[in-house]
Specification:
- It is a single chain.
- This protein is mainly alpha-helical.
- The chain has two domains: 207 residues, no CATH class; 97 residues, no CATH class.
- Helix content is 81%, strand content 0%.
- Helix 2 runs antiparallel to helix 5, helix 3 packs antiparallel against helix 4 and helix 4 packs parallel to helix 6.
- The longest helix has 46 residues.
- It is elongated.
- 32% of the residues are buried.
């Protein structure tokens, strides 16, 4: 019994630990990670309820349901929290998105395998079944949810449409899940494929994404510091953002233009502060929280409201206010 527990429940969390170790940028929030694990467990319970209900209502065999309908129910439920986190700008890069998605799938698989252990451990003595569930099914559940996060974050960082990316990622996750459940090849071969593809793919994605994060930090930090220096010297009009603001000032009331100027200045200050936090976390330095940050974040929100939607859209391209940039401000809250 102990061996069955070890091989069916532990492997996926060992892999999750490996992903957290690979996250040298330390982008993952412990609070959000715990929330994802909780949601993974809850979505497993909801899946059991919906699958039991639908299987009783639909005139299909268990094999047909398991191969074509259950993957839809389970993947949609798992990605629910992930989509909310992305919409709330709580995920900034593919790395943290992949870890959050993987953790949801890990907790889902843990609860599902726990259910199988309680109900079938006495009648199913073949250890290979539990190895397949622990190394194959569990990693598959984790990998498919991570795929949705990776595709969604990749689209956002390229400023593509989130809806289409989520739809594509979910379809791919359902397709992989469905193939796995149909046992087109032996369970052992399926498990070996999953164990080979998922960890290697995640590792390569992490390496590529960390390089892009470092480039983003270094290049934008220098640019923002330069613009902020020009503002303090009273030479803001000589910058790209300043020249743009001068060019559009006749399209907005004077008080709105002033608020736009204040917004740009305060945003740059907070953006640099957030990037410095990331750099400190990466190098394991203690972060001393600026007590003025909460008040400045409130002021930034007030300025955004004052300049209105038109004013915000006018300055957004100049400051490159995309999903990634809005996410980093959440680190200060």
């Amino acid at each position: 019994m102990i061996l069955k527990i070890l091989v069916s429940l532990i492997p996926v969390f060992l892999l999750l630990g490996m992903l957290l170790f690979l996250d040298s940028m330390k982008l993952v929030s412990k609070g959000i990670l715990l929330l994802c694990l909780t949601w993974g467990a809850m979505s497993a319970g909801l899946s059991f309820f919906f699958n039991t209900f639908l299987l009783g209502k639909l005139d299909v065999t268990f094999e047909t349901y398991s191969g074509f309908i259950a993957p839809v129910v389970e993947e949609v439920l798992k990605m629910g929290l992930l989509l909310l986190l992305i919409k709330k700008n709580r995920i900034g890069f593919m790395i943290d998105g992949a870890i959050y998605g993987f953790s949801i799938g890990a907790a889902f698989a843990f609860c599902e395998n726990l259910f199988y252990l309680f109900h079938y451990s006495g009648t199913e003595g073949n250890l290979m079944v539990w190895i397949t569930r622990g190394f194959g099914t569990a990693v598959m559940h984790s990998g498919t949810t991570a795929i949705v996060a990776i595709i969604a974050m990749s689209a956002l960082n390229r400023q593509n449409k989130l809806g289409m990316a989520v739809f594509t990622g979910t379809l791919l996750a359902i397709f992989i899940h469905s193939l796995f459940n149909q046992f087109l090849v032996s369970p052992l071969i399926s498990t070996l494929i999953v164990l080979l593809v998922v960890p290697v793919s995640m590792s390569l994605i992490f390496q590529f994404n960390e390089k892009s994060i470092r480039n983003w930090l270094e290049m934008e930090f220098d640019t923002e510091a330069s613009v902020l220096r020009m503002i303090k010297k009273g030479r803001f009009a000589d910058t790209r953002a300043g020249a743009f603001l001068v060019s559009v000032r006749h399209h907005f009331p004077k008080d709105v233009v002033l608020d736009m100027y204040c917004f740009i200045s305060l945003y740059l200050e907070l953006s640099m502060k957030a990037k410095s936090y990331i750099m400190l976390k990466e190098n394991d330095f203690e972060i001393v929280v600026d007590p003025e940050i909460p008040a400045k974040l409130i002021e930034l929100k007030a300025l955004e409201k004052n300049i209105g939607r038109a004013g915000y859209l006018a300055i957004a391209p100049v400051l490159r206010l995309n999903h990634k940039d809005l996410w980093k401000l959440s680190l200060l809250g």
